[in-house]
């Protein structure tokens, strides 16, 4: 799910230390919701309001709905943090909200509790707004707001409890299979395939609706189904990939032929001799035989060409002590997750502060290809 919405994000601040962001796609659903609420829901409930009040209440209700979604995600996050599972961010986007959990839950029990926390918050909100309705019965706009929020939060509970990963219900399902089989990867595969099944079901139901009188409603359901299927199949591939890498360590896939260059070498020399000459993409910088840093193509690109003759390797290297790194006996899968987390494409492999090689995404793919060719 994360690939779809990490980039176009407007930061809103932090709650419990977690950065809260608004994806650009949120504005689309905000406009659509406001328009629907101001154009149909409120006029149908209350016929005598001035036109501007419909729009004001439409927008206010849409914002309250997203506040409810945010509380739902915070519900997941609080429990995750309790289990020491990091929460990297919460993003509101076109289909609601998503809390980016930074690691897999440590146990089936943790997974279960993190997953149910969101729907429990939504259920609490539904009850709260239901109970509030009689209290504000005399104030039409507040009554309409409470009624809508009670309804929509309850709908959120029902939708999220569909047992297809990565919906909350699917996570609960995964936790149960995980507890029963003691195998998280297998549980992920089963729950994610259930997610794909429900995704298809939504697409099917949506298309059926589209051609039976409710075009826009059907399109929306089909769109949600497509999104669900997409997110679920990503999980299926990830679990399969994880299975292929299981039992293999960084030392098996790392390249130990990283070119080393002296700290005072100019960029011009480096590019001429090693990049155009040797096709290398990554360099270790040494001083007195110690590795002191690393240079990537990306770093070189940041230096204007006319400065290459006067810039030394040491000036643009990433110092070793600042580099994220991995160890030779780390599981490959763990190292890949670290790359994802840190947003890098390669990790120096070190032991006792000595660089033994470089692990890159390309290297992992090559390793997998070799495994397959050997039929291992
Ligand atoms: Zn949830």
Tags for this model:
alpha+beta; 2 domains; CBS-domain; four-stranded mixed beta sheet; 13 helices; disordered N terminus; binds zinc ion; 376 residues; single chain
Structural class: alpha+beta
Poorly predicted runs are 1-5
Termini gap: 31 Å
What series of H and E elements makes up the topology? EEHHEEHHHHHHEHEEHHEHEEH
**What fraction strand?**
15-25%
- Given the structure, what is the number of helices? 13
**Extended strand count:** 10
> How big is the Rg?
26 Å
Say which molecules are bound, naming each kind only once: zinc ion
- So what's the overall shape? elongated
Helix content: 55-70%
Mean pLDDT: 86
Please outline what is shown here.
By secondary structure, this protein is of the alpha+beta class. The chain is 59% helix and 15% strand.
What does this entry look like structurally?
The chain is an alpha+beta fold and 376 residues long. It has two domains: 2-161, no CATH class; 250-373, CBS-domain. Helices cover 59% and strands 15% of the residues. It contains 13 helices and ten strands. The chain has helices at 25-45, 51-82, 108-135, 140-160, 168-181, 184-210, 215-245, 250-253, 267-276, 297-301, 313-316, 332-342, 361-373; strands spanning 9-15, 18-23, 87-93, 96-101, 259-262, 282-287, 290-296, 318-319, 346-351, 354-360. Strands 1-2-3-4 form a four-stranded mixed sheet. A four-stranded mixed sheet has the order 5-6-7-8. A two-stranded antiparallel sheet has the order 9-10. A hairpin with a 2-residue loop joins strand 3 (87-93) and strand 4. Helix 2 (51-82) runs antiparallel to helix 3, helix 3 runs antiparallel to helix 4 (140-160) and helix 6 (184-210) runs antiparallel to helix 7 (215-245). The longest helix is centred in the N-terminal third of the chain and has 32 residues, at 51-82. Residues 1-5 have low confidence and may be disordered. Zinc ion is lined by residues 72, 76, 118, 160, 168.
């Amino acid at each position: 799910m994360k690939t779809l919405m990490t980039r176009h994000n407007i930061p809103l601040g932090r709650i419990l230390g977690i950065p809260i962001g608004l994806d650009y796609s949120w504005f689309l659903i905000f406009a659509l919701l406001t328009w629907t609420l101001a154009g149909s829901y409120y006029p149908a409930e209350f016929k005598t309001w001035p036109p501007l009040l419909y729009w004001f209440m439409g927008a206010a209700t849409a914002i309250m709905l997203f506040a409810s979604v945010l509380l739902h995600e915070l519900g997941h996050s609080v429990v995750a943090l309790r289990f020491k599972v990091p929460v990297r961010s919460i993003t509101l986007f076109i289909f609601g909200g998503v809390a980016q959990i930074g690691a897999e839950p440590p146990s089936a029990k943790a997974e279960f509790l993190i997953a149910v926390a969101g729907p429990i918050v939504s259920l609490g909100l539904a009850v709260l707004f239901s109970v509030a309705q009689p209290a504000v019965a005399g104030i039409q706009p507040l009554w309409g707001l409470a009624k809508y929020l009670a309804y929509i939060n309850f709908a959120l509970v029902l939708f999220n409890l569909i047992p297809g990963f990565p919906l909350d219900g699917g996570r609960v399902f995964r936790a149960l299979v995980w507890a029963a089989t003691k195998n998280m990867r297998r549980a992920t595969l089963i729950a994610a395939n259930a997610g794909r099944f429900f995704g298809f079901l939504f697409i099917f139901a949506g298309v059926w609706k589209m051609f039976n009188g409710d075009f826009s409603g059907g399109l929306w359901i089909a769109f949600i189904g497509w999104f669900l299927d997409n997110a679920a199949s990503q999980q299926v591939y990830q679990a399969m990939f994880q299975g292929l890498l299981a039992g293999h360590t960084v030392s098996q896939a790392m390249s130990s032929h990283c070119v080393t260059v002296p700290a005072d070498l100019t960029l011009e020399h480096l590019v001429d001799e090693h990049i155009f000459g040797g096709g290398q993409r990554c360099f270790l910088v040494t001083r007195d035989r110690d590795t002191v840093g690393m240079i990537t193509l990306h770093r070189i690109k940041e230096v204007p060409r006319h400065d290459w003759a006067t810039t030394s390797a040491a000036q643009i290297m990433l110092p070793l002590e600042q580099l994220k790194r991995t160890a030779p006996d780390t599981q490959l899968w763990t190292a890949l997750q670290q790359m994802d987390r840190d947003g890098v494409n390669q990790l120096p492999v070190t032991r006792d502060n000595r660089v033994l090689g470089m692990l890159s995404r390309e290297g992992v793919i090559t390793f997998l290809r070799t495994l397959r060719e050997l039929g291992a």
